[in-house]
Design a protein that fits this description.
The protein is an alpha+beta fold and 156 residues long. It has a domain of 61 residues: Roll (SH3 type barrels). Helix content is 22%, strand content 21%. It contains 2 helices and 7 strands. Strands 6-5-4-1-7 form a 5-stranded antiparallel sheet, with no helix packed on it. The longest helix has 31 residues.
């Protein structure tokens, strides 16, 4: 009888401590999954494909334009389950191509060989840089540069 009491006490202590460990583990897991509430994202690349399953395939539901507003619900293996805000379509996209805010529009730059009016002229040569930006060659050769490949034994 005297041996049974310490054994029961040890078992009860083990049971209570195991319950405490399980409780803290479930709290951590629930806090990780509880933070996956829907968030708003935007498409970061033009023509992002919307797939019916979380994998790359030939079949896609739609191609989403740049800066399209999406609501992301969950992420699995690098794919995000999203719903398009404007059309209501739902599917999977590559999560790496989602951004938190709209991408800045690219400025239109005039192409080389065009005038400000926008019409290209044939036969125009490329403009050379201004004379003040040109670097002149030194008049005297620098001996350190001239002999950089010489052996250390040349002086002896």
């Amino acid at each position: 009888m005297k041996c049974l009491r310490p054994i029961l006490l040890i078992l009860a202590f083990t049971f209570v401590s195991a319950c405490a460990v399980v409780d803290t583990a479930t709290q951590k897991i629930s806090s990780l999954t509880g933070g996956t509430e829907p968030r708003t994202y935007y498409v970061g690349v033009p023509d992002l494909k919307l797939y019916p399953e979380p994998r790359f395939s030939k079949e896609h539901i739609a191609k989403l334009p740049l800066n399209e507003k999406l609501v992301r619900y969950k992420v699995e293996r690098g794919f995000a389950y999203v719903k398009v805000a404007s059309t209501g379509q739902a599917g999977w996209v590559n999560n790496a191509h989602l951004i938190g805010r709209k991408a800045a529009p690219k400025k239109a730059t005039p192409q080389e060989g065009t005038l400000q009016g926008g019409s290209p002229e044939k036969g125009l040569a490329k403009k050379s840089p201004p004379e003040k930006d040109l670097i002149e060659a030194p008049s005297q050769p620098n001996p350190e540069i001239e002999r950089h490949d010489a052996s250390i034994f040349d002086a002896f």
